[in-house]
Amino acid sequence: MPSQPSSALSDIRLGLRANWAQFSLLVFVNAFVGGMVGIERTVLPLLAEADFGIASKTAILSFIFSFGIVKALANLFAGRLSDRIGRKKVLVTGWIIGLPVPVIIIFAPSWEWIIFANGLLGINQGLCWSTTVIMKIDLVGPQQRGLAMGINEAAGYLAVSAAAFGTGYLATTYSLRPQPFIIGIIIALAGLISSIFLVRETQGHAAVEARTHHNGMPPAARLSFAHILLLTSWKDRSLFAISQAGMFNNLNDGMAWGLFPLYFALHGLSIGDIGILSAIYPAVWGIGQLGAGALSDRVGRKPLITLGMIVQAGGIFLFILTSDFWIWALGSTLLGLGTALVYPTLLAAIGDVAHSTWRASAVGVYRLWRDGGYAIGALLAGSLADALGIRWAIGATGGLTLLSGIIVATVMRETLPGRR
């Protein structure tokens, strides 16, 4: 992390209340980031079959595979670059790269162009979402970290839900292209303009925390990036448990994103009903994080992560036990609730363990594994769906999610300060 003049740091205060204006702005910016993903969740799998005539589920889910691989790597570089050159530059770069995505989807003459657009979207999401997470952790300091992450993730996934519902409505009223993706152009422009002209750098806040708060971990001066990668991925048992939970969480999200619309359509649901089911999951996910993040500041991280993975698995299993719309709505609700318990809590736990001088890099490594789950989920779910059917692919994903919860329960230590 670049050194900061002492005079500049003396005026910096940590905490949600002291930084409410900039924190609130970053909440809106992250909502724009979430909206960019939401424009695809209802429409794109249906577009593959209707406009491009693709029958293979593996081929259809290739857009999620490209998104997941690129986003995972972008997360890794976003964290490291944020430590080296600052948060704001990374954020603005991410928006510039994401700006052409909806335009490419509107005019794409072949499915290969959709895959390319999702590679760009992966870079946009990796750079922008990672950076807004890191900046909020910087601003609030060690207190109320779970609450801050809950607000951040709630804004992002409520926007995913709103965009999924909105694009489903536009697709029903007009067509699959171009109307639903015009929303994406507006979102990208709003995110870029606000990031350039309104967002301020937060690296100084991390420097203040490094001087005043310590969690027992060594500072960055003693750790190479390779060491941080190994520590976050495997060597520290709590960070390993966190990283694998994030990976399996997004593995089931990748399956839900790619297969659920096709599964619902196979059972005769209209695009409007598919849009409703596609919106329930991220809506509950978004709203639930507001309470889950704050709750983790009181009861600890481990119980919520364990419970969240088990609840997700239960929600997924409901989809293969029946073909009733309302039971599926309940399954979507449980999947969203379980994810809400997990998502902000995992990020807060990373902030608990990692030293502030290399925290951004640790967040990047964690998000490498977490969003790598999209690619693994797309490949696994698509292959199983082609070989055995969509129902088997959904069931296998639920089983892996349950296994991940068991790993957290048996391996992870509590990370919340005061409860370790």
Automatic annotation (TrEMBL):
<keyword id="KW-0813">Transport</keyword>
<keyword id="KW-0472">Membrane</keyword>
<protein>
    <submittedName>
        <fullName>Major facilitator superfamily MFS_1</fullName>
    </submittedName>
</protein>
<dbReference type="InterPro" id="IPR020846">
    <property type="entry name" value="MFS_dom"/>
</dbReference>
<dbReference type="GO" id="GO:0005886">
    <property type="term" value="C:plasma membrane"/>
</dbReference>
<feature type="transmembrane region" description="Helical">
    <location>
        <begin position="400"/>
        <end position="416"/>
    </location>
</feature>
<keyword id="KW-1003">Cell membrane</keyword>
<dbReference type="Pfam" id="PF07690">
    <property type="entry name" value="MFS_1"/>
</dbReference>
<feature type="transmembrane region" description="Helical">
    <location>
        <begin position="59"/>
        <end position="78"/>
    </location>
</feature>
<feature type="transmembrane region" description="Helical">
    <location>
        <begin position="20"/>
        <end position="39"/>
    </location>
</feature>
<dbReference type="InterPro" id="IPR011701">
    <property type="entry name" value="MFS"/>
</dbReference>
<feature type="transmembrane region" description="Helical">
    <location>
        <begin position="90"/>
        <end position="108"/>
    </location>
</feature>
<dbReference type="GO" id="GO:0022857">
    <property type="term" value="F:transmembrane transporter activity"/>
</dbReference>
<keyword id="KW-1133">Transmembrane helix</keyword>
<dbReference type="InterPro" id="IPR036259">
    <property type="entry name" value="MFS_trans_sf"/>
</dbReference>
<feature type="transmembrane region" description="Helical">
    <location>
        <begin position="327"/>
        <end position="351"/>
    </location>
</feature>
<feature type="domain" description="Major facilitator superfamily (MFS) profile">
    <location>
        <begin position="19"/>
        <end position="416"/>
    </location>
</feature>
<feature type="transmembrane region" description="Helical">
    <location>
        <begin position="114"/>
        <end position="134"/>
    </location>
</feature>
<dbReference type="InterPro" id="IPR050171">
    <property type="entry name" value="MFS_Transporters"/>
</dbReference>
<feature type="transmembrane region" description="Helical">
    <location>
        <begin position="304"/>
        <end position="321"/>
    </location>
</feature>
<feature type="transmembrane region" description="Helical">
    <location>
        <begin position="181"/>
        <end position="199"/>
    </location>
</feature>
<feature type="transmembrane region" description="Helical">
    <location>
        <begin position="262"/>
        <end position="284"/>
    </location>
</feature>
<keyword id="KW-0812">Transmembrane</keyword>
<feature type="transmembrane region" description="Helical">
    <location>
        <begin position="155"/>
        <end position="175"/>
    </location>
</feature>
<dbReference type="InterPro" id="IPR005829">
    <property type="entry name" value="Sugar_transporter_CS"/>
</dbReference>
